[in-house]
Each structure stands twice: as C-alpha cells, then as structure tokens.
C-alpha cells in the first residue's frame, strides 16, 4: 500500500491517462464532462473482472490548470479564469508493476468502448 501519497513507496507503480486537454477558451465548461467520465471510469474499475480490479490501489482525478510561462507578468493574460488551459487526467496506482501493461490496456479499451457508446462526451 502506498505511504505518504507516493506511489514509489509501494511494490506497484503508477500510470496516468490524459483524458482532456484544452487550449484555454472556456475550459471550465468542459470540466463537468471530465467529472462524468471520471465517475464512469470508477464504475468500470468496480465492475471490472477481479484480475483487473484487485490490482488497483487508487484512482485519482488530476486537474491541472496551466497559466503558462511568463503570463503572470501580463496585466490580464486571460479575460477570465474559465479561459485558463486545463489538463485533465486519471492517475492509477497499482499494487503489482508486473500487471501494469495488462491494467493499462484493459482500462484504455474499456474507456474507448465507453466513449464509443456515449457519443454525448
């Protein structure tokens, strides 16, 4: 089990899946869609076969707002906070690094199927 919020402290590992990246314009409007996708991914893991689900120690929603280098010097680099570029990703902590490839492929395939089934994303 990871200690001190560091995946390096476990016998497993960590991988990230980039799900959303925006150039900025009204990025905040896309965040509810990412929230929904994150919840659906949680369901995928809970509904996954035991050979997949038993290896997942943690699933984290990472939403990073990138203000850009040097932009802090400008008076108003973005007209509004909702215009800041956003990177949305899932971070998956696993208990056995030998299973990482299988887990990644399984999760990516399941997310692809989910997105194909739900064109509303």
Automatic annotation (TrEMBL):
Protein name: CPSF_A domain-containing protein
Organism name: Globodera pallida
Upper taxonomic lineage: Eukaryota, Metazoa, Ecdysozoa, Nematoda, Chromadorea
């Amino acid at each position: 089990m990871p200690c001190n919020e560091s995946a390096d402290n476990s016998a497993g590992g960590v991988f990230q899946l980039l799900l959303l990246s925006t150039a900025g314009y009204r990025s905040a409007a896309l965040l509810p869609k990412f929230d929904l996708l994150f919840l659906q991914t949680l369901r995928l893991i809970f509904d996954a076969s035991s050979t997949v689900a038993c290896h997942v120690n943690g699933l984290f929603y990472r939403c990073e707002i990138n203000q850009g280098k040097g932009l802090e010097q400008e008076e108003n680099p973005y007209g509004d906070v909702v215009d800041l570029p956003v990177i949305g990703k899932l971070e998956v902590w696993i208990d056995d690094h030998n299973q990482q490839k299988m887990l990644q492929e399984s999760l990516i395939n399941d997310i692809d199927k989910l997105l194909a089934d739900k064109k509303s994303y």
